[in-house]
């Protein structure tokens, strides 16, 4: 982390920050954020209640590690290009598996993940110690302007003003949004309404230049062991699952749109 201390900026007063004795990140005005023993930094200035808990993040890790999103990870790697030493920030990174799989083990890229849910970052820092993990608000992030070549925003809320600030001049924003068929077998079990991403896509196009979009749709046969984690990985299905109900789910649909924009 010491090597990359220049990427940090105080979320309270916006002044530069230093890593002190590998124990805390401290700004010029002495606002101090401790480095936890697991290696992550908590930049929140007040506690935030999250609907995402430990169980949900464990479930997401099992599902992502199973390879369900492998085509997404490969496509994002392809979009980011060949340049090795990219600085990549994942905003709303959850438990960190997407970022870790995207960068891969041999990558020279520098990965940074931020999420407002401490349980997510705790899990990320336990499993992936070659990435810088931060608890923080992506709308008021603890990073200096023009610090990143790539900002990722996968199935998470966005703040385009902040993403623009964080990107280098020719930086790329890569946002992944669900399309109507995403996990539709589960949606059909629990709700009637269909999902539309129209407004999200419109907002992205208004705010970023040279937008390219890629659609990624596939079905994967489901190993029965993945059914419970798949149901547990979204807060939307909570309280709606009867514990011992047997669920038949032979396959699952992934239907995503990848929006790629250049900094304005
Ligand atoms: C649906 S989850 C997606 C997580 C991860 N990208 C994935 O695909 O597994 C949305 C994430 O956005 C995070 N989030 C929501 N608001 C946030 C904010 N203001 N700042 C940072 N993270 C936020 C949540 O804590 C949660 O981890
Ligand atoms: Zn400060």
Could you say which structural class the secondary elements and strand pairing correspond to? alpha/beta
Total number of helices? 8
What is the molecular shape? globular
- Helix and strand succession? EEEEHHEHEHEEHEHHEHE
Instruction: List the strand order in the largest sheet.
Output: 4-7-6-5-8-9-11-10
Bound molecules: S-adenosylmethionine, zinc ion
CATH homologous superfamily grouping: Vaccinia Virus protein VP39
Instruction: Provide the helix percentage.
Output: 25-40%
Total strands: 11
Integer count of domains: 1
Organism: Lederbergia citri
Binding site for S-adenosyl-L-methionine: 69, 95-96, 182
Pfam families: Methyltransf_25 (PF13649), Zn_ribbon_RlmA (PF21302)
GO molecular function: metal ion binding; methyltransferase activity
Short synopsis of the structure:
It holds the Pfam family Zn_ribbon_RlmA. This protein is α/β, with parallel strands linked by helices.
Task: Describe this protein's structure.
Helix 2 (70-80) crosses helix 3. The chain has helices at 54-65, 70-80, 97-103, 118-127, 160-166, 184-190, 198-207, 227-232; strands at 17-20, 24-27, 32-34, 41-42, 87-91, 110-115, 132-135, 148-154, 167-178, 209-221, 251-262. The protein has a single domain (38-239, 249-262), classed as Rossmann fold, CATH 3.40.50.150. By secondary structure, it is α/β, with parallel strands linked by helices. It contains 8 helices and 11 strands. The longest helix is centred in the first third of the chain and has 12 residues, at 54-65. The strands form 2 sheets. Strands 4-7-6-5-8-9-11-10 form an 8-stranded mixed β-sheet, with helices on both faces. Strands 1-2-3 form a 3-stranded antiparallel β-sheet, with no helix packed on it. The structure holds S-adenosylmethionine and zinc ion (ZN). Zn(2+) binds at residues 10, 13, 27, 31. S-adenosyl-L-methionine binds at residues 69, 95-96, 182. One of its GO terms (biological process) is methylation.
């Amino acid at each position: 982390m010491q090597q990359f201390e220049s990427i940090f900026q105080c979320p309270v007063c916006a002044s530069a920050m230093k890593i002190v004795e590998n124990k805390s990140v401290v700004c010029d005005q002495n606002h101090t954020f401790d480095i936890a023993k697991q290696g992550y930094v908590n930049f929140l200035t007040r506690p935030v209640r999250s609907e995402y808990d430990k169980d949900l993040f464990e479930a997401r890790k099992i599902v992502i590690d199973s390879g369900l999103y492998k085509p997404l990870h490969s496509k994002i790697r392809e979009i980011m290009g060949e340049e090795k030493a990219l600085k990549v920030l994942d905003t709303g990174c959850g438990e960190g598996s997407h970022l870790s799989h995207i960068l891969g083990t041999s990558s020279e890229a520098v990965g940074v993940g931020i999420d407002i849910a401490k349980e997510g970052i705790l899990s990320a820092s336990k499993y992936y110690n070659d990435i810088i993990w931060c608890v923080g608000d992506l709308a008021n992030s603890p990073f200096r302007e023009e610090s990143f070549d790539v900002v990722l925003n996968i199935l998470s809320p966005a703040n385009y003003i902040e993403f623009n600030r964080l990107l280098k001049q020719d930086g790329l924003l890569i946002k992944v949004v669900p399309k109507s068929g995403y996990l539709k077998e589960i949606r059909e079990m629990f709700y009637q309404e269909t999902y539309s991403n129209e407004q999200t896509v419109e907002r992205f196009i208004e705010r970023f230049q040279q937008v390219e979009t890629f659609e990624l749709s596939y079905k994967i046969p489901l190993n029965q062991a993945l059914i419970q984690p798949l149901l547990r990985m979204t807060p939307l299905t909570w309280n709606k699952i009867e514990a011992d109900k047997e669920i038949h789910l032979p396959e699952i649909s992934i239907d995503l749109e990848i929006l790629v924009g250049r900094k304005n």
